[in-house]
Amino acid sequence: MALATAALLAGLTTPALTATPAAATTTPYDTTYYADAMGKTGATLKSSLHEIISAQRTISYSAVWNALKVTDQDPNNSGNVILLYSGISRSKSLNGGSTGNWNREHVWAQSHGNFGTATGPGTDLHHLRAEDVQVNGARGNKDFDNGGSAFTNSGGSLTDSDSFEPRDAVKGDVARMILYMAVRYEGDDSWPDLEANDAINGSVPFHGRLSVLKQWNDEDPPDAFEKRRNQVIYDSYQGNRNPFIDHPEWVESIW
């Protein structure tokens, strides 16, 4: 406090606090699944990861319902799913479109790529999560950023007129889902070239806010729930992985 006061009295400003960048990690997949990406950086790393994760099985949008009951299962109650933004544990049977139900949230908003719910980015489990119907509506298609006010069943998430801030426990999850999409969909397989940028309400096919997503990736490293989800999608559904869950330090390397 004394140093900060002295700096202000001297007409100086203290440096802004920033999150510590994600530390380098190792996984059992480094010599197999990620072998072609190891040691690469920047655009070369992004291109290599795109090739790796594009080898993917797809599922229908109707099949997403049952898949989410497995990928998002509450570790403390096998009959429930954990809702992404609100953190509520809710019965798997309450999936639907009515108040009190949970539905299928596209973390990369459909309108930020015009891909709807067709097989492809519209059904990619690496960015689809279970969420309360009304909370899903509150998020809408807003970009992710800091700030806003709480709302019913928010669980600590915040929103304002043009952005959405998820609760602290899943900020990194959201960041890594968005950045997965920006690597997986590069415009070479009939889908739009999705890209993360630093704008709010930017034009299609962009999603923001990149600088904030990078900060969230550092502040909220992958936890057991997120790692299990990545493994289940790989083993049981799509056969591909979210590389930023396995190697969160690759976010900084690419962006």
Automatic annotation (TrEMBL):
Keywords: Hydrolase, Nuclease, Signal. Residues 149-161 have a biased composition (Polar residues). Residues 140-164 are annotated as: Disordered. SUPFAM superfamilies: His-Me finger endonucleases. Residues 1-18 form the signal peptide. InterPro entries: Endonuclease-I (IPR007346), His-Me_finger_sf (IPR044925). One of its GO terms (molecular function) is nuclease activity. PANTHER family: ENDONUCLEASE-1 (PTHR33607:SF2). This is Secreted ribonuclease.
